[in-house]
Write a structure and sequence with these properties.
The chain is of the alpha+beta class and 315 residues long. The chain contains 9 helices and 13 strands. α1 packs parallel to α2 and α7 crosses α8.
């Protein structure tokens, strides 16, 4: 039963993610892939505002994106209407900051924020478990984005196990001036040819032990080989970064690369050299920190009363 108290306005930060480890176990008969991965929120975010309306509408600043049902935000809102029978609407405004087609989960973060935000705006009172069941039908990373933090995900993304939160370790992101289609990468993945899988369980154990500094010694991303083969210029830059002694990995299906935990003068100098070269070549770069949450309310109005920032749980 829906809660009779509804929001008048809700503004949410939807945080991006990186993959500290990513393995693909099998391809299922329904076309989905069984995965095992460790997802980590970072402080790069999209901001989404929701206000009540008689119908659904979407406005976007920051990127040129579809404003119809090709956009995951509207697909998510319509999915929520279909699941609950709610016939009201919302005016949704997206300030897009997470690069599109980057492997950083921007679309998944926006879908998660839409589920959680409309659940509150419309007074639906759906439980976190119910929201996560809806989330997995929208994308493998969406259930994680509802939770955020540091999480081990299995199945098709719906089996989540919270891991101890990592400290606010620095993370450097670099995306080349092109996008990658996740569907294309999975299409070109030949699991029968894989001889070595990433040590996802080992990385999870290091996190549980508090030995996060050792993560780069064991991390891996099975999709990397596919993406780097399709985009040799990306492999060239990744190898060049590694040659500077920096621990570099690709997030998701790419093409964003990330460097994790630079915390001494020598590594910082190498990172500055890397960033200068990549920016000259038209790459987008970002200096950030690991984040302990997936969603955060930055403004809300309830019965005309404005409140400040707070963490938003999926319910």
């Amino acid at each position: 039963m829906a809660n009779q108290t509804r929001m008048e306005k809700l503004k949410i930060k939807a945080y991006a993610k990186i993959n500290l480890a990513l393995d693909v176990i099998d391809r299922r008969a329904d076309g989905y892939h069984e995965i095992e991965m460790i997802l980590q929120s970072i402080d790069l975010y999209d901001q989404i505002q929701f206000t009540p309306a008689s119908s659904l509408s979407l406005e976007i600043t920051g990127y040129r994106l579809p404003l119809d049902d090709r956009n995951i935000i509207l697909r998510t809102a319509r999915k929520l209407q279909a699941e609950t029978g709610f016939n009201g609407g919302a005016r949704i405004w997206l300030r897009k900051r997470i690069p599109v087609g980057a492997g950083l989960g921007g679309g998944s973060a926006d879908a998660a924020a839409t589920l959680a935000g409309l659940n509150q705006l419309w007074g639906l009172a759906l439980s976190p478990a119910t929201l996560e069941k809806i989330a997995v039908t929208l994308g493998a990373d969406v259930p994680f984005c509802l939770r955020g933090g540091t999480v081990l995900a299995r199945g098709i993304g719906e089996k989540l196990m919270d891991l101890p939160a990592l400290p606010s370790v620095p993370v450097f992101l670099a995306k080349p001036p092109f996008n990658v289609s996740t569907a294309q990468i999975y299409k070109n993945l030949t699991l029968s040819a894989v001889t070595r899988h990433p040590e996802v369980t080992r990385v999870a154990a290091l996190i549980q032990q508090g030995a996060y500094q050792k993560i780069p010694e064991h991390w891996g991303n099975l999709l990397e080989e596919v993406t780097l083969k399709l985009y040799p210029e990306l492999k060239k830059e990744m190898d060049w970064i590694s040659g500077h002694g920096l621990p570099v990995r690709m997030s998701g299906s790419g093409p964003t690369l990330f460097i994790f935990g630079v915390n001494d003068d020598r590594a910082a100098a190498a990172l500055a050299t890397v960033e200068a070269r990549l920016r000259r070549r038209g790459w987008w770069t970002y200096h950030g920190l690991l984040q302990a949450r997936g969603l955060e309310v930055v403004e809300e109005e309830k019965r005309g009363n404005a409140n400040g920032k707070r963490t938003l749980s999926s319910n």
